[in-house]
User: Fold this.
Amino acid sequence: MTNQLPKHQPVLLEKAVEALHIQPDGIYIDATFGRGGHSRAILEQLSAAGRLLGLDRDPQAVNAGNALAATDPRFAIEHATFSQLSSVIHSRLWQGKVDGILMDIGVSSPQLDEAERGFSFQHDGPLDMRMDPTTGMSAAEWLATAEMDEIATVIKTLGEERYGKRIAGAIVETREHTSITTTRQLAELIDKASPTRDKFKHPATRTFQAIRIYINRELEELSSALQQALDVLSVGGRLAVISFHSLEDRIVKRFFRDQAKGDDLPAHFPVTADQLNPRLQIIGKVIKADADELAVNVRARSAVLRVAEKLA
Ligand SMILES: C[S@@+](CC[C@H](N)C(=O)[O-])C[C@H]1O[C@@H](n2cnc3c(N)ncnc32)[C@H](O)[C@@H]1O
Assistant:
Protein backbone atom coordinates (compact mmCIF):
# COMPACT_ATOMS: atom_id res chain seq x y z
CA MET A 1 0.00 0.00 0.00
CA THR A 2 1.33 3.48 -0.81
CA ASN A 3 1.65 6.08 1.93
CA GLN A 4 -0.81 8.90 1.18
CA LEU A 5 0.79 11.41 3.59
CA PRO A 6 2.76 14.12 1.78
CA LYS A 7 6.50 13.70 2.30
CA HIS A 8 9.21 16.15 3.26
CA GLN A 9 12.79 15.48 2.22
CA PRO A 10 14.98 16.68 5.10
CA VAL A 11 17.71 19.17 4.23
CA LEU A 12 21.33 18.90 5.47
CA LEU A 13 20.22 15.83 7.43
CA GLU A 14 23.58 14.25 8.29
CA LYS A 15 25.41 17.54 8.71
CA ALA A 16 22.79 18.98 11.07
CA VAL A 17 22.61 15.86 13.24
CA GLU A 18 26.40 15.60 13.33
CA ALA A 19 26.56 19.27 14.40
CA LEU A 20 24.44 18.48 17.46
CA HIS A 21 27.19 16.17 18.81
CA ILE A 22 24.57 13.80 20.18
CA GLN A 23 25.14 12.41 23.69
CA PRO A 24 23.23 9.08 23.69
CA ASP A 25 21.59 9.77 27.09
CA GLY A 26 20.96 13.45 26.37
CA ILE A 27 17.86 15.61 26.03
CA TYR A 28 17.22 17.07 22.56
CA ILE A 29 14.65 19.39 21.02
CA ASP A 30 13.59 19.32 17.38
CA ALA A 31 11.88 22.72 17.35
CA THR A 32 10.54 22.22 13.79
CA PHE A 33 9.36 18.61 13.62
CA GLY A 34 7.72 18.83 10.15
CA ARG A 35 7.54 15.17 9.09
CA GLY A 36 10.31 14.12 11.45
CA GLY A 37 13.22 13.50 9.10
CA HIS A 38 15.72 15.06 11.48
CA SER A 39 13.96 13.65 14.54
CA ARG A 40 14.29 10.08 13.29
CA ALA A 41 18.00 10.58 12.63
CA ILE A 42 18.48 12.00 16.16
CA LEU A 43 16.56 9.07 17.69
CA GLU A 44 18.90 6.66 15.89
CA GLN A 45 21.75 8.06 17.99
CA LEU A 46 19.96 8.14 21.35
CA SER A 47 20.05 5.36 23.94
CA ALA A 48 16.94 4.12 25.77
CA ALA A 49 17.59 6.87 28.36
CA GLY A 50 17.83 9.69 25.79
CA ARG A 51 14.87 11.99 25.17
CA LEU A 52 13.72 13.95 22.13
CA LEU A 53 10.92 16.49 22.22
CA GLY A 54 9.47 17.75 18.95
CA LEU A 55 7.63 21.04 18.53
CA ASP A 56 5.60 22.27 15.60
CA ARG A 57 2.93 24.92 15.19
CA ASP A 58 1.28 22.98 12.35
CA PRO A 59 -1.43 20.54 13.54
CA GLN A 60 -0.68 18.19 10.61
CA ALA A 61 2.97 17.97 11.66
CA VAL A 62 1.85 17.29 15.23
CA ASN A 63 -0.34 14.42 13.98
CA ALA A 64 2.69 12.95 12.23
CA GLY A 65 4.69 13.41 15.46
CA ASN A 66 2.04 11.69 17.53
CA ALA A 67 2.27 8.67 15.23
CA LEU A 68 6.02 8.52 15.91
CA ALA A 69 5.51 9.03 19.67
CA ALA A 70 3.14 6.04 19.71
CA THR A 71 5.97 3.80 18.53
CA ASP A 72 8.92 5.32 20.41
CA PRO A 73 8.75 6.09 24.16
CA ARG A 74 11.83 8.32 23.96
CA PHE A 75 9.93 10.79 21.77
CA ALA A 76 7.12 13.24 22.46
CA ILE A 77 5.67 16.15 20.51
CA GLU A 78 3.91 19.36 21.51
CA HIS A 79 1.77 21.68 19.44
CA ALA A 80 3.63 24.93 20.10
CA THR A 81 5.53 27.68 18.35
CA PHE A 82 9.25 27.71 18.99
CA SER A 83 8.82 31.11 20.61
CA GLN A 84 7.11 29.13 23.41
CA LEU A 85 10.29 27.10 23.93
CA SER A 86 11.01 28.35 27.46
CA SER A 87 7.53 27.62 28.80
CA VAL A 88 7.48 24.15 27.18
CA ILE A 89 10.88 23.36 28.70
CA HIS A 90 9.92 24.82 32.10
CA SER A 91 6.85 22.61 32.30
CA ARG A 92 9.11 19.56 31.82
CA LEU A 93 11.66 20.85 34.36
CA TRP A 94 14.36 20.69 31.68
CA GLN A 95 15.62 24.27 32.16
CA GLY A 96 19.42 24.31 31.62
CA LYS A 97 19.41 20.57 30.87
CA VAL A 98 18.86 20.51 27.12
CA ASP A 99 21.88 19.11 25.24
CA GLY A 100 20.90 20.22 21.77
CA ILE A 101 18.29 22.14 19.82
CA LEU A 102 17.69 21.88 16.09
CA MET A 103 15.71 24.51 14.19
CA ASP A 104 15.04 23.79 10.51
CA ILE A 105 12.96 26.87 9.88
CA GLY A 106 10.58 27.87 7.13
CA VAL A 107 7.89 25.78 5.48
CA SER A 108 7.78 22.05 4.81
CA SER A 109 7.10 20.46 1.42
CA PRO A 110 3.67 19.19 2.53
CA GLN A 111 2.72 22.75 3.48
CA LEU A 112 3.83 24.04 0.08
CA ASP A 113 2.42 21.17 -1.92
CA GLU A 114 -1.09 21.05 -0.47
CA ALA A 115 -3.24 23.56 -2.35
CA GLU A 116 -5.60 23.80 0.64
CA ARG A 117 -2.88 25.44 2.76
CA GLY A 118 -2.68 28.39 0.39
CA PHE A 119 1.11 28.83 0.46
CA SER A 120 1.84 28.31 -3.21
CA PHE A 121 1.02 30.23 -6.37
CA GLN A 122 1.60 27.00 -8.28
CA HIS A 123 -1.54 25.37 -6.90
CA ASP A 124 -4.88 27.14 -6.73
CA GLY A 125 -6.32 27.14 -3.23
CA PRO A 126 -7.73 29.35 -0.50
CA LEU A 127 -5.37 32.22 0.30
CA ASP A 128 -4.48 31.11 3.83
CA MET A 129 -0.70 30.69 4.41
CA ARG A 130 -0.96 30.11 8.17
CA MET A 131 1.34 27.36 9.41
CA ASP A 132 -1.21 26.95 12.19
CA PRO A 133 -4.61 27.43 10.56
CA THR A 134 -6.32 27.27 13.98
CA THR A 135 -5.08 30.70 15.03
CA GLY A 136 -4.40 34.21 13.73
CA MET A 137 -5.31 35.97 10.51
CA SER A 138 -5.18 34.30 7.10
CA ALA A 139 -3.42 36.04 4.20
CA ALA A 140 -6.82 36.74 2.60
CA GLU A 141 -8.09 38.39 5.80
CA TRP A 142 -4.98 40.53 6.08
CA LEU A 143 -5.03 41.63 2.43
CA ALA A 144 -8.70 42.55 2.79
CA THR A 145 -8.07 44.97 5.63
CA ALA A 146 -4.47 46.23 5.68
CA GLU A 147 -3.55 49.76 4.55
CA MET A 148 -1.84 50.01 1.17
CA ASP A 149 1.37 51.38 2.72
CA GLU A 150 1.57 48.49 5.15
CA ILE A 151 1.12 45.95 2.33
CA ALA A 152 3.78 47.72 0.24
CA THR A 153 6.25 47.77 3.14
CA VAL A 154 5.77 44.07 3.85
CA ILE A 155 6.25 43.13 0.19
CA LYS A 156 9.29 45.37 -0.18
CA THR A 157 11.07 44.46 3.06
CA LEU A 158 10.17 40.78 3.56
CA GLY A 159 10.09 39.90 -0.15
CA GLU A 160 12.83 42.26 -1.28
CA GLU A 161 10.42 43.00 -4.16
CA ARG A 162 11.17 46.19 -6.06
CA TYR A 163 7.59 46.48 -7.36
CA GLY A 164 6.10 46.29 -3.85
CA LYS A 165 4.29 49.59 -4.18
CA ARG A 166 2.73 48.74 -7.56
CA ILE A 167 1.66 45.31 -6.33
CA ALA A 168 0.14 46.77 -3.15
CA GLY A 169 -1.68 49.33 -5.31
CA ALA A 170 -3.08 46.56 -7.52
CA ILE A 171 -4.23 44.60 -4.45
CA VAL A 172 -6.08 47.61 -3.02
CA GLU A 173 -7.62 48.49 -6.39
CA THR A 174 -8.80 44.91 -6.95
CA ARG A 175 -10.29 44.47 -3.49
CA GLU A 176 -12.53 47.51 -4.05
CA HIS A 177 -14.64 45.42 -6.44
CA THR A 178 -13.62 41.75 -5.82
CA SER A 179 -12.50 39.90 -2.67
CA ILE A 180 -9.06 38.33 -3.09
CA THR A 181 -9.57 34.86 -1.68
CA THR A 182 -7.50 32.43 -3.77
CA THR A 183 -3.82 31.94 -4.50
CA ARG A 184 -4.47 32.02 -8.26
CA GLN A 185 -6.28 35.37 -8.04
CA LEU A 186 -3.36 36.89 -6.14
CA ALA A 187 -0.72 35.36 -8.43
CA GLU A 188 -2.49 36.67 -11.57
CA LEU A 189 -2.90 40.11 -10.07
CA ILE A 190 0.82 40.27 -9.19
CA ASP A 191 1.73 39.02 -12.66
CA LYS A 192 -0.28 41.84 -14.27
CA ALA A 193 1.14 44.46 -11.91
CA SER A 194 4.79 43.49 -12.53
CA PRO A 195 6.30 45.45 -15.42
CA THR A 196 9.31 43.16 -15.95
CA ARG A 197 10.01 39.42 -15.71
CA ASP A 198 12.82 37.52 -14.01
CA LYS A 199 13.89 34.67 -16.33
CA PHE A 200 13.93 32.02 -13.61
CA LYS A 201 11.28 33.25 -11.14
CA HIS A 202 7.52 33.63 -11.29
CA PRO A 203 6.67 37.29 -10.59
CA ALA A 204 4.61 36.22 -7.55
CA THR A 205 7.50 34.40 -5.82
CA ARG A 206 8.74 37.30 -3.70
CA THR A 207 5.31 38.62 -2.76
CA PHE A 208 4.05 35.19 -1.66
CA GLN A 209 7.17 34.73 0.42
CA ALA A 210 6.76 38.16 2.02
CA ILE A 211 3.11 37.61 2.94
CA ARG A 212 3.91 34.18 4.38
CA ILE A 213 6.73 35.54 6.53
CA TYR A 214 4.50 38.37 7.74
CA ILE A 215 1.38 36.28 8.46
CA ASN A 216 3.40 33.75 10.48
CA ARG A 217 5.58 36.41 12.18
CA GLU A 218 8.54 34.27 11.14
CA LEU A 219 11.33 36.73 11.89
CA GLU A 220 9.94 37.65 15.33
CA GLU A 221 9.49 33.95 16.11
CA LEU A 222 13.11 33.27 15.20
CA SER A 223 14.58 36.13 17.24
CA SER A 224 12.55 35.17 20.28
CA ALA A 225 13.39 31.45 20.00
CA LEU A 226 17.15 32.04 19.69
CA GLN A 227 17.19 34.00 22.94
CA GLN A 228 15.16 31.32 24.73
CA ALA A 229 17.36 28.54 23.33
CA LEU A 230 20.31 30.11 25.13
CA ASP A 231 18.45 29.92 28.45
CA VAL A 232 17.30 26.32 28.15
CA LEU A 233 20.55 24.77 26.86
CA SER A 234 22.99 23.08 29.22
CA VAL A 235 26.60 24.28 29.27
CA GLY A 236 28.19 22.61 26.22
CA GLY A 237 24.75 22.19 24.62
CA ARG A 238 24.54 22.79 20.89
CA LEU A 239 22.21 24.99 18.86
CA ALA A 240 21.95 24.20 15.14
CA VAL A 241 19.85 26.44 12.90
CA ILE A 242 19.04 25.83 9.24
CA SER A 243 17.61 28.85 7.45
CA PHE A 244 16.49 29.33 3.85
CA HIS A 245 16.30 33.07 3.51
CA SER A 246 18.88 35.83 3.81
CA LEU A 247 16.75 37.82 6.30
CA GLU A 248 16.56 34.80 8.61
CA ASP A 249 20.21 33.92 8.20
CA ARG A 250 21.16 37.49 9.08
CA ILE A 251 19.25 37.20 12.36
CA VAL A 252 21.01 33.93 13.25
CA LYS A 253 24.43 35.22 12.22
CA ARG A 254 24.08 38.43 14.27
CA PHE A 255 22.72 36.61 17.29
CA PHE A 256 25.60 34.11 17.27
CA ARG A 257 28.15 36.87 16.74
CA ASP A 258 26.73 39.07 19.54
CA GLN A 259 26.50 36.21 22.01
CA ALA A 260 30.03 35.04 21.14
CA LYS A 261 31.32 38.58 21.68
CA GLY A 262 29.67 38.99 25.09
CA ASP A 263 28.71 42.19 26.93
CA ASP A 264 28.59 45.37 24.91
CA LEU A 265 30.99 47.67 26.74
CA PRO A 266 32.49 50.95 25.52
CA ALA A 267 35.68 50.59 23.43
CA HIS A 268 38.90 50.42 25.52
CA PHE A 269 36.92 49.52 28.69
CA PRO A 270 39.55 47.83 30.89
CA VAL A 271 38.36 44.17 30.86
CA THR A 272 39.83 40.94 29.51
CA ALA A 273 38.03 38.92 26.83
CA ASP A 274 36.64 36.36 29.32
CA GLN A 275 35.25 39.16 31.51
CA LEU A 276 33.02 40.14 28.58
CA ASN A 277 30.95 37.12 29.50
CA PRO A 278 30.46 35.49 26.08
CA ARG A 279 27.53 33.09 26.10
CA LEU A 280 28.07 31.15 22.89
CA GLN A 281 30.99 29.75 20.97
CA ILE A 282 30.49 29.63 17.21
CA ILE A 283 31.31 26.15 15.91
CA GLY A 284 32.93 25.93 12.47
CA LYS A 285 31.92 27.81 9.38
CA VAL A 286 28.58 28.12 7.68
CA ILE A 287 27.51 24.73 6.29
CA LYS A 288 25.71 24.35 2.96
CA ALA A 289 24.47 21.41 0.92
CA ASP A 290 27.05 19.62 -1.22
CA ALA A 291 26.66 18.74 -4.89
CA ASP A 292 25.26 15.26 -4.11
CA GLU A 293 22.46 16.70 -1.99
CA LEU A 294 21.73 19.49 -4.47
CA ALA A 295 21.37 16.89 -7.21
CA VAL A 296 18.50 15.20 -5.38
CA ASN A 297 16.89 18.04 -3.39
CA VAL A 298 16.40 21.42 -4.99
CA ARG A 299 15.10 22.90 -1.68
CA ALA A 300 18.62 22.50 -0.26
CA ARG A 301 19.91 25.18 -2.64
CA SER A 302 19.33 28.08 -0.29
CA ALA A 303 19.82 26.20 3.01
CA VAL A 304 22.42 27.58 5.42
CA LEU A 305 23.34 25.77 8.66
CA ARG A 306 24.96 27.63 11.55
CA VAL A 307 26.05 25.95 14.75
CA ALA A 308 26.98 27.29 18.19
CA GLU A 309 27.71 25.85 21.63
CA LYS A 310 26.64 27.31 24.97
CA LEU A 311 29.48 28.49 27.19
CA ALA A 312 29.60 28.38 30.99
C1 LIG B 1 11.39 22.94 6.98
S1 LIG B 1 10.13 22.19 7.92
C2 LIG B 1 10.97 21.08 8.98
C3 LIG B 1 11.18 19.74 8.38
C4 LIG B 1 11.74 18.71 9.32
N1 LIG B 1 13.07 19.02 9.75
C5 LIG B 1 11.70 17.34 8.68
O1 LIG B 1 12.77 16.74 8.47
O2 LIG B 1 10.61 16.85 8.36
C6 LIG B 1 9.69 23.45 9.05
C7 LIG B 1 8.61 23.07 10.03
O3 LIG B 1 8.70 24.01 11.09
C8 LIG B 1 7.42 24.43 11.46
N2 LIG B 1 7.56 25.78 11.98
C9 LIG B 1 7.93 26.88 11.30
N3 LIG B 1 7.95 27.94 12.12
C10 LIG B 1 7.62 27.49 13.35
C11 LIG B 1 7.49 28.10 14.63
N4 LIG B 1 7.70 29.40 14.78
N5 LIG B 1 7.17 27.33 15.68
C12 LIG B 1 6.96 25.99 15.51
N6 LIG B 1 7.04 25.37 14.33
C13 LIG B 1 7.38 26.10 13.26
C14 LIG B 1 6.59 24.35 10.21
O4 LIG B 1 5.23 24.17 10.52
C15 LIG B 1 7.20 23.13 9.50
O5 LIG B 1 6.51 21.97 9.83
Q: What stands out?
A: The chain has two domains: 13-110+218-310, 132-215. The chain has 13 helices and seven strands.
